[in-house]
Amino acid sequence: MSADLWNSAAHVLEANWSHDHMVPSRRLYPHQWSWDAAFIAIGLAYTNPTRAWRDLRSLFEAQWPDGRVPHIVFDPGTPENDYFPGPTFWDVPAYGGRAARGSTGLVQPPLHAVAAWEVYRRAASHGTSCARAAGDELAWLYPRLVAQQEYLTGRRDAGGDGLASIVHPWESGLDNSPSWDAAMSAVPADLTLLTRFQRRDIENADAAHRPTDVDYARYLGLVLNYRDGSYADTDLAWRHDFVVECPSFNSILAAAELALVQIAGVVGADPEVHRARAQKITEAISRHLYDPATRTFRSRDVRTRTLSPARCVNGLMPLLLPGLPTEQAEAIMAEAASPRFGLPEQTGLPVPSYDRTAPDFDPLRYWRGPIWINVNWLLRRGMLVHGYRGEAEDLRTAMVRLVHRSGHFEYFHPVTGEGIGAPAFSWTAALSLDLLADRSVPAYARAA
Q: Mannosylglycerate hydrolase MGH1-like glycoside hydrolase domain: from which residue to which, for each copy (predicted)?
């Protein structure tokens, strides 16, 4: 099984490479996506580390002057009509560099420091010369990674509590998660936008698996509002209709700071600023996004200061953080093992994206029920951080078996395990390589 899965995953990554970057899939996602690039680099470290560094560099060459890393960088060789919303819709101001290709004005979870450290760690295991070359790559990336973190912890702290806010569900990476339903209910759904602008996603995927038209109209409206304000982040809480603090996004933000502690040690920078920032973010997540009544982490609407009632997979992600209080880590494990999610011991499958017992649980519709490998990979990493090694190994085995049986799909049916969405999906392939090869505990947890 291992050899077959390794070879098939390597083939997907070879087929999806496009000049100087990786596409998530050839038909549905023909450009470069931000947090996809991070997951993909982790897998490429095993088969083609040169491409792993090139993919990260390619993304950060499109970094904005304010430090934001766009959630999509457009491939100029792909016709505008092949993907919507494309560069014309986003109308991002020119600012030099690779941005001439066009990008969006949104961000995605900043997993890139974690990815860079993992690629370096893999290279360093191959000897001094490989470590030296990888160190040069880290030196190029380090100031750009720092700028990304400073943008998110500074300009995006709309609530003033030390947490980064997302201004669009797409920024979470969990696009149509029920975690956003309460906040999105206040966003106008102008369905006339769908007559002015044609959706492309449902031309290449089953509409029953994708966000609804109402959701999509709201997505477009949020982009237009942000775009018409020149993508500025001032006064977000009162002038923008969706401003939310996500436990997953902020956990990754803190994990990135912990990875930067390691990277700073290689490039000769001060690691303590990153250690302190990681602690501050962890404390803010613990204080503001944890619901003690239900012992769960939830997203918070900055505009209303209320927690989402939905129990979603993003609430399990604070397990990534070694500084999380023990009782909260235990609560996450209890939630993951409950009938709402179900660890492989109960279901034989990785965890779904949403509470299985919820009346609106949907086994087909994107982030409203299906299983995703990337968040399960993050959950497994969190289990290792907090010493749940048996559970982490069970989850690793379940992910490997699922992908081997069903293929490198974008996501999977949470009951049958059938592959759904785009086939030959890059991050599923990349993370399969890592799951086959690496069972170590993250360095920052070992040092804690």
A: 29-428
The span from the CA of 321 to the CA of 174, in Å, is 20
The rounded radius of gyration (Å) of the Cα atoms in the chain is 20
Q: Domains, the chain, ranges and CATH?
A: 2-442 (1.50.10.10)
pLDDT tens per residue across span 217-249: 999 999 999 999 999 999 998 899 999 999 999
Compute the distance between CA of residue 193 and CA of residue 213 in angstroms, rounded to an integer.
10
- Just list the catalytic residues: 175, 410
Q: Which residues contact 293 (CB under 8 A, 6 or more apart)?
A: none
Q: In degrees, to the nearest 5, what angle opens at C-alpha 368 toward C-alphas 365 and 372?
A: 85
Specify the DSSP class assigned to residue 185.
Answer: T
pTM of this prediction exceeds 0.85: yes
Question: What is the tens place of the pLDDT at every residue in 99-132?
Answer: 446 899 999 999 999 999 999 999 888 777 788 8
Does residue 28 have a pLDDT over 90?
no
DSSP per residue, 79-135: -GGGSSS-HHHH-PPP-SGGGGG-B-S-----THHHHHHHHHHHHHTT-HHHHHHHH
Indicate the SS3 state at residue 193: helix
Report d(CA 177, CA 366) in Å as an integer.
Answer: 8
Buried b (16+ CB within 10 A) or exposed e, 192-211: ebeeeeebbbeebbeeebbb
Residues 255 and 251: their CA atoms lie apart, in Å, by: 6
More confident residue, 98 or 428: 428
